[in-house]
Amino acid sequence: MKLWTVLLLSVLGMMGLTTPSFAQRGGHGASVDGDSPMTVRSSGSGTLGGNYTGFRYGVVKVVDKDEIILTKTDAGVDETFKFNKKTKFIHDGKPSSLDSLKVGDKVWVDAAEDKKTGDSTARKVVSGAFLM
């Protein structure tokens, strides 16, 4: 009976982690345009994940004027994104600024990889209550 309970809980747990609106891992080392470990995939049903296809998700660990470091990412490693003058910030669905980001915020980042340096540069950083 214990084995049956363990198996049932395992299956139910896995089912909860594989719904289309949850972020899923892609191939290792792929570009942000394709199957990066942070790429969000969706069935296109209009869920939160569908709105942020290609974005990377994480929790702000460090934020300063030049970069943001995310923790608790889908890949399980901290990830750094540089800012440039073109980086856009969205908070609660409205244009915002870097000042709106705080440590502990849950964010989605649209990033591009610099082919020369390998650095990830944030094109757009989305945060706010509507993401919860």
General shape: elongated
Compressed to H and E, one letter per element, the order equals HHEEEEEEE
Helical content (DSSP H or I, runs of 4+): 10-25%
Low-confidence stretches: 17-49
What is the CATH C level class, in words? Mainly Beta
* Number of E-state strands: 7
Characterize the structure shown.
- By secondary structure, the protein is an alpha+beta fold.
- It is 15% helix and 30% strand.
- The protein is built from two helices and seven strands.
- It has helices at 2-17, 48-51, and strands at 56-63, 67-71, 79-82, 88-91, 94-95, 106-113, 120-127.
- Mean pLDDT is 74; it is low at 17-49.
Provide the fold topology:
Layout lengths: L1 H16 L30 H4 L4 E8 L3 E5 L7 E4 L5 E4 L2 E2 L10 E8 L6 E8 L5
What attributes does this structure have?
alpha+beta, 2 helices, seven-stranded mixed beta sheet, OB fold (Dihydrolipoamide Acetyltransferase, E2P), 132 residues, 7 strands
Outline of the structure:
This protein is an alpha+beta fold and 132 residues long.
